[in-house]
Amino acid sequence: MTQALTHLGDMPIAEFIRDYWQQKPLLIRQAFRGFKSSVSADELAGLALEEEVESRLIIEEGQQPWELRCGPFEEEDFGQLPKNKWTLLVQAVDHYVPEVADLLDHFRFIPSWRLDDIMISYAVDGGSVGPHYDQYDVFLLQAAGQRHWQLGQACNQESPKVEGIDLHILQQFEADQDWVLEAGDMLYIPPQLAHWGTAIGDECMTYSIGFRAPSHAELLNDFVQEQMSRLGEDQRFSDPGFPPQKNSGEITDQTIDKIAALLTSAAQDKQQLKTWFGQFITQPKYQDESASALQEDIEESLNELKLRQAVGPLLLERNPASRFAFSEGRQATHLFVDGLTFETSKALANHLCEARQLNFSCATEDELHCLAELIELGHISCPEE
After folding, report:
1. pTM value?
2. Structural domains in the chain?
3. What pLDDT is recorded for position 373?
């Protein structure tokens, strides 16, 4: 199992979280000494040809300034690109390349449900996505070649953007820090900090390890929708024994207090809140609407697991595209996988959330049934022996 980082360079993780996380940037020279990309430029381009893979090309001097093209692409698209100032970005490469997914285990010092995915960018000389900012934390690991990074001002939604293009590029960029990163170097950038990376020479490849940061609007909208699904027509506003008031048109403080109590009561059940949040935060970025499991298939997988366990520990592998989390329930541990909830033991939930490749022995009947259902839903697999 890949070990989580205990230091970023010479800095203990506890110090990084206390002084830098979501506060200020940090450059870590040789965070991954001797790092070599698990994906070549040709393999990255190959992923960009696939229908299910999200990919983009950004050409600074294309048919218009900062031209954006979205995949999937054809092979001939790459043969028609200019000699310089273009970038290929491929999202969620960790979903398709196990060696890239392994890199995420190094970042388990941050709650795993905060992890989003690993985007890989390949750029030729001068390639860039322009000065911009993100709404989430990101670690930028230089995988090959060199990239010149400039960091600028704090931004927000009011910061002026270049008009008439499909990218959120800042009109103004006030650089006050800059570095050239080599393979193995890593730069941490907190949310809403302007930054601008430019490839130096060809064969520049950068891994972007991004983190989920749902907006308050997203959280509230999903929570309200979930609450609405629980409410019936008979549950309505009531005000027995209301005090007389001088003007019938006045909305009194007592009324507002009742409304506030009604709204806040929805968030008072901690277990209900845990269940909602676990389902919300593990919802997959790329939803497979066809995922389902037939009972007879679950029973078949269950029998196979029993046979495997009879001869040794169960070797399991998580689908790198699936999100796992868990929380303690009143009666059982709740395991959350891609927006679904499974009641299981704390031992199994712990193990499944610990790493991508797992070794599990002495599973109970209930635990085996949970594993069988996860296998049939495509969230885990038993590697062929």
Report:
1. 0.92
2. 7-211 (2.60.120.650), 217-225+269-385 (3.40.366.30)
3. 96
